[in-house]
Every structure is written in C-alpha cells, then in structure tokens.
Specification:
Layout lengths: L18 H16 L4 H21 L2 H17 L10 H30 L15 H15 L3 H12 L4 H8 L3 H19 L7
Helix pairs in contact: 1-2, 2-3, 2-4, 3-4, 6-8, 7-8
Length: 204
C-alpha cells in the first residue's frame, strides 16, 4: 500500500538538477542507460514521488496513480537505451507519465462506457489524502473537483504549469506542441478554471 505522503497535493517542483546535483544526476542517467546494477532502483528512489504526484494530479484517483507509476517505471526500464540525454531524466519521465496517464484515461473511459451500456452504476467518492489538514480539506476538494471538470488536455497544462511549476517551453517539449499552441491551451484552461472556481479577475 502506498504511503499517504506519496499522495500529498502540495506544490513542489519535480526533481530538477541544480548545479550541485547535476553531476550526480547525469552519472545516474548514464548508469541507468548502460544497465548498471542498482541504477534502476536508484532512479525509482529519486523520481518516484514526482511521478506519483504528477499521475495523481492528472488522474485524480490515488489507486489509478499507483498503477500508472508502475507502468511508467516499467516503460522507462524497457526503453532505457532510447534515452539520449537531450533533456534531463526527470523531464523524460514526466513525458512518459503524461503518455501513460492519457492511455489510462482512454481505458478508463472505455470501461465506463461499457458499464453505462450494461446499466451498472455506483462508485465511491475518494476522501482527501490522510495527511491533508482538516482545515484545508474543503479547499482541496474544491480544487480537485474543479480540475476534474476540465478536459484532460486542459488539466494537463494546469497541473504542469501551476502545480509542477513547469515552464511553457518545457511543456511544449513534453507535449510535443508548439509554444504558441501551449500558451493558448493554458490561457483557455485557466479561464475555464476561474469560472468553475467562481474566481473573478479582482479576486486574489
């Protein structure tokens, strides 16, 4: 079972390599690509929290995020030799996570359509993570409910830009889109989110 701390909806940056840690990160990436013993385990230890947090924010269900995290690292292991170092390892894993979340959503929607066709219904509303203070629970639920009203494409740019603190240029590279297209998507997603949350331009 995943420790609740892995599900924490706090604003935090993905593992980016500062000047002091860049050498270690590059060395780890080289070991990982070469298949050195223990390198994969070290990559998982370094990037697990980032991958899990991103998947949770994109999908909104912790159980689904757990499944995606496993898929991400298995895909990374399988495709390790394809990593060329054009971006840092964290960015590469973010791209894999985005793709896995998209695939997971497609599968989920297909299952939901099948359930609806068969006349089944039900479902359980998940509670806020255990480590969210009670005073923040309502705000957390409001934001998560608002995010879930966005389309997957809109949710991606909101999560990446505001929660993962990813720049527009980085998002363009991760999403395989032009910078201008990402800016337009982000602008529209932000406008829709403000409407859903009932935030006016004058609000803080």
């Amino acid at each position: 079972m995943t420790d609740p701390v892995d599900r924490r909806p706090t604003v935090a940056e993905p593992p980016r390599d500062d000047v002091a840690g860049r050498g270690d990160a590059a060395a780890l990436a080289a070991r990982f690509v070469s298949g050195a013993p223990g390198a994969f385990e070290a990559v998982v230890a370094r990037y697990h929290d980032h991958v899990h947090r991103l998947a949770y924010r994109l999908l909104g269900w912790a159980g689904d995020a757990d499944d995606v995290v496993q898929e991400v690292f298995l895909a990374a292991l399988k495709n390790a030799r394809r990593f060329r170092g054009d971006a840092d390892l964290g960015t590469w894993l973010t791209t894999i996570t985005l793709n896995k979340c998209r695939g997971h959503r497609r599968g989920l929607f297909a299952r939901l359509r099948l359930v609806a066709h068969l006349g089944a219904s039900g479902g359980k509303q998940e509670s806020p993570p255990a480590d969210v203070p009670a005073t923040d629970a309502d705000a957390f639920e409001s934001v998560r409910a608002a995010l879930n009203q966005l389309s997957p494409r809109e949710r991606e740019v909101i999560v990446l830009h505001y929660l993962e603190q990813t720049t527009v240029d980085q998002m363009a590279a991760m999403l395989g889109a032009k910078r201008g297209a990402v800016e337009v998507r982000l602008h529209r997603a932000r406008a829709k989110l403000r409407v859903v949350l009932g935030v006016t331009e004058e609000s803080p």
